[in-house]
């Protein structure tokens, strides 16, 4: 698929493309399971619209592959797709016919785009429904009619969202607009967790639909900042601060990063930290305050005579203020800190921009930053990694969202993002009351912005290109880095308890990386690398 192509049309989805997209895009187990289990009884999303329309598919096609992707194996399913599909077929009165699918494959020279969409959905639902249907039925019996109504509403939202995504991908503006109108009436900002996440996806789908170009057009028209966007900056900054204080994601990254940095600084007196993307835009340099405090209180180690911090990012004036605050804080603890600001984005950063002194120990810190330079061509990220490699740091600490939001196909990204952010919104349900305005601010001005970028943007405008830790492992290896296993599982679990992180969050070790998740759904992954 050429980098400049903004959408995949109905005629561009060949069987080869679909097989290459695989179920790795649909590793979807974070969404409300009762909704998805009930949804398995609804065969084809286009039935929500006009039957017999020109856009409907002429047949239902269900191609299967004997191979599963590496990412898909992470689900460790106890039931095979074929076995579960047989069960669903018998339950639904033969809804899915294998013989008809096979005949369709031999009689049709090219699969329809909407057939692929139906195929992706059904393959996942078939594997999950047997395990989840029983739990959904038990919950419905225990909670009575109210639970049944909530499940039905959630099921309907799932249907509408996927149908709308399908219509947007097919550039069917009239059908997509009708579905968006219904979604807006049901996706409530102060509703259930899925209603709230649906409201964010509605915004993304509406933005993408507004930028749809006619069939055959190449490229993507990026949106431009206006006065209203600038007025929202303060709200976004407040939302970021709330996410840092309430959600454990960023704080977990800071904890693992600082612990790894302290380990790299053992026995050293002259140390240097390069912070890519300097503090994520947080106003007070929280991560480095914690490191400074730890350096001044560590026992059995020679005192650090000098700490240098180089902050890389735009808005140099703001970074300089943070640096001055850090220097004053360190001085109050008796530690000499020198702060330097490099006014540059990561793509334009050069080795000579980082001033190095002989005898100092260097570490590089990247918290939720490198995914922004992952592009279709890979050149931008490779250049950044090569630049870091030339600096020869003792360790590079990498913390990133652990989800696949950088696939080439819009629908795959949509479904993966839907389940990833459903897990996050579900965790917010457990942490804050229903009508807490702090939750609404985080959801609408932080997470919604990420969702809209993933869903509505293409090309250079799409910067939220999150990838799984396995993909990062391959990228780092190709760039010449070697993994440095993080051996602090016990400390990470103690950190969860000490900070009273909401029950439901878990930490697991995966091939030397630490992964923070919500009810088994990975959220962020931390890893360390050496040259």
How would you describe what is shown here?
This protein has 531 residues and is of the alpha/beta class. 50% of the residues lie in helices and 11% in strands. It contains 17 helices and nine strands. The chain has helices at residues 15-21, 33-39, 81-91, 98-107, 113-169, 173-186, 193-210, 227-231, 233-246, 249-264, 286-297, 316-332, 379-391, 410-431, 437-456, 469-478, 489-498; strands spanning 270-276, 306-313, 337-343, 361-367, 395-401, 482-483, 505-510, 513-518, 521-530. Strands 1, 2, 3, 4, 5, 6, 7, 8 and 9 form a nine-stranded mixed sheet that branches. The longest helix has 57 residues, at 113-169. The two termini are 33 Å apart. The model is unreliable at 1-109, 125-147 and 217-221 (pLDDT under 50).
In short:
With 531 residues, the chain is an alpha/beta fold.
- Outline: globular
- Give average pLDDT, whole number: 77
Poorly predicted tracts of residues: 1-109, 125-147, 217-221
Q: How many E strands? A: 9
Number of helices: 17
Between the first and last Cα atoms, what is the distance in angstroms? 33 Å
| Global structural class | alpha/beta
Strand content: 5-15%
How would you characterize the largest beta sheet?
9 strands, mixed
Q: How large is the radius of gyration? A: 24 Å
What pattern of helices and strands is seen along the backbone?
HHHHHHHHHHEHEHEEHEHHHEHEEE
What portion of residues is helical?
40-55%
């Amino acid at each position: 698929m050429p980098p400049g192509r903004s959408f995949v049309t109905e005629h561009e989805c060949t069987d080869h493309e679909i097989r290459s997209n695989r179920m790795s895009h649909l590793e979807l187990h974070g969404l409300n399971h009762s909704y998805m289990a009930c949804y398995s009884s609804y065969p084809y999303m286009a039935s929500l619209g006009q039957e017999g329309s020109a856009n409907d598919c002429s047949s239902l096609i269900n191609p299967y592959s004997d191979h599963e992707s590496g990412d898909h194996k992470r689900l460790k399913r106890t039931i095979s797709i074929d076995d579960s599909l047989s069960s669903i077929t018998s339950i639904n009165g033969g809804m899915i016919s294998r013989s008809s699918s096979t005949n369709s494959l031999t009689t049709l020279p090219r699969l329809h785009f909407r057939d692929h969409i139906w195929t992706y959905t059904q393959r996942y639902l078939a594997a999950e429904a047997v395990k989840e249907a029983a739990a959904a039925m038990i919950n419905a019996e225990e909670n009575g009619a109210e639970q049944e109504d909530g499940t039905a509403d959630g099921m309907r939202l799932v249907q509408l969202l996927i149908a709308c995504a399908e219509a947007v991908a097919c550039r069917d503006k009239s059908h997509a607009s009708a579905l968006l109108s219904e979604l807006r009436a049901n996706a409530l900002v102060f509703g259930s967790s899925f209603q709230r996440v649906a409201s964010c996806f509605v915004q993304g789908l509406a933005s993408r639909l507004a930028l749809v170009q006619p069939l055959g057009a190449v490229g993507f028209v990026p949106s431009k900042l206006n006065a209203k966007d600038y007025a929202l900056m303060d709200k976004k900054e407040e939302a970021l601060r709330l996410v840092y204080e309430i959600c454990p994601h960023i704080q977990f990254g800071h904890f693992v990063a600082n612990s790894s940095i302290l380990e790299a600084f053992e026995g050293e007196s002259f140390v240097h930290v390069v912070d890519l993307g300097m503090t994520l835009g947080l106003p007070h340099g929280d991560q480095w305050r914690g490191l400074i405090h730890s350096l001044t209180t560590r026992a059995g180690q020679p005192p650090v005579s000098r700490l240098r911090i180089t902050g890389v990012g735009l808005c140099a004036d703001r970074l300089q203020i943070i640096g001055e605050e850090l220097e004053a804080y360190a001085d109050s603890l008796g530690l000499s800190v020198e702060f330097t600001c490099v006014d540059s984005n990561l793509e334009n950063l050069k080795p000579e921009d980082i001033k190095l002194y002989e005898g100092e120990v260097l570490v590089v810190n990247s918290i939720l930053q490198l995914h922004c330079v992952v592009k279709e061509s890979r050149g931008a990220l490779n250049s950044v990694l090569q630049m870091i490699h030339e600096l020869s740091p003792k360790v590079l600490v990498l913390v990133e969202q652990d989800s696949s939001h950088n696939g080439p196909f819009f629908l795959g990204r949509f479904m993966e993002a839907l389940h990833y952010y459903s897990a996050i919104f579900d965790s917010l349900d457990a942490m804050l009351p229903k009508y807490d305005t702090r939750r609404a601010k985080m959801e609408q001005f932080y997470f919604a912005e990420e969702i809209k970028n993933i869903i509505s943007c293409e090309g250079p405008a799409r910067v939220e290109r999150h990838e799984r830790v396995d993909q990062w492992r391959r990228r780092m290896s190709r760039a010449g880095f070697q993994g440095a296993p993080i051996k602090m599982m016990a400390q990470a679990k103690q950190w969860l308890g000490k900070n009273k992180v909401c029950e439901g969050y878990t930490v697991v070790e995966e091939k030397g990386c630490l992964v923070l998740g919500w009810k088994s759904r990975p959220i962020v992954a931390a890893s360390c690398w050496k040259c």
